[in-house]
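Input.
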Amino acid sequence: MAAKALSFDVGDYVVYPKHGVGRVIELQRQEIAGMQLELYVLRFEKERMTLRVPTNKAESVGMRKLSSDKTLREALETLTGKPRVKRTMWSRRAQEYEAKINSGDLVSIAEVVRDLFRADDQPEQSYSERQIFEAATSRLARELAAMEQVDEPTAQEKILEILRKAAAIHNKDKVPA
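Output.
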């Protein structure tokens, strides 16, 4: 039980895998079921949600600090890659995409964004594809925004710009038969 718990300070941005980027707004001590617990109180502005996480459980639930610059560069580099579309049933792919988004791993989220992006000259997405794409893009944009200290729409536009440029390059490779 001597494992050193992750430590976050009030005001720190953190990533909670299932909810994305939040901010530690306070540290609380509460008595729950006769036990004294120390809790991180996280605020997720976009969802207007407050979450209390026991400090000793922060690591096991996957809570982490914002990604490193290296990880961010890797994620943005992933966006420039060629989309990989598996030929499996949509329901199975959707589950895989959701799992990647909820993993909290920035590069995995970038893969989902890349794979589901549709350029203006490509066929329309289904409603569920669009929902997953928007969820992944939003999650990626929130972490990018927190790291680069810009607002989410600015971060989202940066992501879409990278995707549009990559799509233009990849679509040139396709020569009509």
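Residues 1-5 have pLDDT under 50 and may be disordered.
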